[in-house]
């Protein structure tokens, strides 16, 4: 997802190693679609 520009990976040079991920604007733009897909999936379980 990083290569597609959906997330940003930030690596901290510390012990133990730590990495944080955050959404880019493009990743944030996907949230409504992903929520709709999740709701649809839940409705199909019944």
Automatic annotation (TrEMBL):
<dbReference type="InterPro" id="IPR036388">
    <property type="entry name" value="WH-like_DNA-bd_sf"/>
</dbReference>
<keyword id="KW-0804">Transcription</keyword>
<keyword id="KW-0238">DNA-binding</keyword>
<dbReference type="InterPro" id="IPR036390">
    <property type="entry name" value="WH_DNA-bd_sf"/>
</dbReference>
<protein>
    <submittedName>
        <fullName>Winged helix-turn-helix transcriptional regulator</fullName>
    </submittedName>
</protein>
<dbReference type="Pfam" id="PF01638">
    <property type="entry name" value="HxlR"/>
</dbReference>
<dbReference type="GO" id="GO:0003677">
    <property type="term" value="F:DNA binding"/>
</dbReference>
<keyword id="KW-0805">Transcription regulation</keyword>
<feature type="domain" description="HTH hxlR-type">
    <location>
        <begin position="1"/>
        <end position="46"/>
    </location>
</feature>
<dbReference type="InterPro" id="IPR002577">
    <property type="entry name" value="HTH_HxlR"/>
</dbReference>
């Amino acid at each position: 997802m990083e290569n597609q520009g959906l997330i940003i990976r930030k690596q901290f040079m510390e012990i133990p190693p730590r990495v944080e991920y955050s959404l880019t604007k493009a990743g944030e733009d996907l949230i409504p679609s992903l929520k709709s897909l999740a709701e649809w999936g839940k409705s199909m379980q019944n």
